[in-house]
Amino acid sequence: MQSLNNKDVGATSHQSFVTEIETGLLATSASISPKFLYDPLGSNLFAAITLLPEYYPTKTEKDILFENIDQIASAVGVGGTLIDLGAGNCLKAESLFNALKPSDYVAIDFSAEFLQDSLSNLEGKYPHIRMQCIGMDFSTQLILPSFVAEIQRTFFYPGSSIGNFIASEALKLLSQIKTQAVGGGLLMGVDLMKEDSVLMAAYDDPLKLTAAFNLNILRSVNAHLGSNFKVEQFQHTVKINHAFNRVELYLEALEDLTVSWPGNSRKFKRGELIHTEYSHKYTIASVQELLKNAGFASTHIWTDPKDYFAVIYAQ
């Protein structure tokens, strides 16, 4: 397994993360990038969230892939390089291996440590597939290293992770994918807009796993920034913004408090919010328009009976 992990990018990435976190915390409306949700603990918490009955995206997407796998394989083609963006535990990509028969599998995730543990479990099961592991923050720029084969590249971006980006950011990322697909394409999962009750149950589940996942970002920030956030001083808060067709995640201060880190600090009043994630929802028409603007000329679309979710192959 060839890998490019956090040790390879070293101090430059660490300092850029510190600067990014500090800038967000000191803004008038505080925010933390959702990529910092996915430290090793956060990645495991999210894996648990996907098993919740209330969290419909993972199961619905899995069902769409399973029920339409022959059509998907026909559209995508077999062989070539499967590039898994936000690979996590790699299970979603693994479900495609038998149908797509990739010669190469490239797993990319923000948390290199979690990713390497996941990928090592696959190598023994699929010795005929060359596997590569890349620790990368592709939320700002996606540049594949030279060792990734350029023949028949298929980018796999499941889970409607594209919804974490505002429109301009989503367009930038999809345009970068189109450029680097070099004649291949993008297989992507997209969450569709639906009633509030379904969304609230998915993002504020009764077991409070999503709350734990969201609150854990404070521990992730402490590790990067050297700050002294206390998890017990905040609570998980969810809002549905119909004007922008998105679910918004926040951490709400439960009391007046001050958070300090080397060289700076930030005061929070009781009820003040830290924004941690957007989850934009799409219509079929809006996602087709987005893909068209990113340079994709054609799309194949599969949905579930309730039209909760869509799987799209774009070229």
Describe this structure in words.
This protein is of the alpha/beta class. It folds into two domains: 102 residues, no CATH class; 173 residues, Rossmann fold, CATH 3.40.50.150. Helices cover 39% and strands 24% of the residues. The chain is built from ten helices and 13 strands. The strands form three sheets. Strands 1-4-3-2-5-6-13-12 form an eight-stranded mixed sheet, with helices on both faces. α2 packs antiparallel against α9. The longest helix has 21 residues. It is globular and about 55 Å long. The N terminus is likely disordered.
What is the total domain count? 2
Count of DSSP E strands? 13
State the share of residues found in helices, binned by percent.
25-40%
- The coarse silhouette is globular
* CATH homology group of the largest domain: Vaccinia Virus protein VP39
Strand count, sense and closure of the main sheet? 8 strands, mixed
Percentage of residues in strands:
15-25%
